[in-house]
Specification:
single chain; mainly beta; binds FE2/S2 (inorganic) cluster; 4-stranded antiparallel beta sheet; 1 helix; 5-stranded antiparallel beta sheet
Length: about 120
């Protein structure tokens, strides 16, 4: 599925990179749930994205750029910039999906990335 911005327009990789810096996390629609694209040093788009589905009860987490953390608005669970849980009530990390850049389009696939960025 194509990664879509919050207005459901397809993201263009070149435009994303022109407006982003390493460390940014960009909300993306396209899968059955919201995800966050990850901008790495370069800047470049990481080959994975982070599911926004809180592992507590499924609310969509928000990205707090200043704190470099994902925060759930429902019951306050917190996750680091890679989606690893740092505060409950959630006890599991956010899921990872695969991101693919091709022909200036960004694709999202509902499967684990080839390389785990957390290891
Ligand atoms: S659903 Fe996220 S903390 Fe409860």
């Amino acid at each position: 599925m194509q990664a879509l911005d919050e207005a459901d327009n397809p993201y263009q990789a070149s435009a994303v990179l022109a407006q982003s810096a390493a460390g940014d996390r960009l909300p993306a629609n396209g899968l059955d749930h919201k995800s966050f694209l990850v901008i790495e040093t370069g800047p470049q788009i990481a080959p994975y994205a982070i599911s926004a589905v809180c592992t507590h009860l499924g609310c969509a987490v928000n990205w707090d750029q200043s704190e470099q953390a994902f925060v759930c608005p429902c019951h306050g669970s917190r996750y680091d910039a890679l989606g690893q849980v740092t505060g409950g009530p959630a006890s599991r990390n956010l899921a990872l999906v695969t991101a693919v850049v091709k022909d200036d389009q960004i694709g999202l696939l509902e499967r684990e990335p080839a390389e785990n960025p957390r290891s």
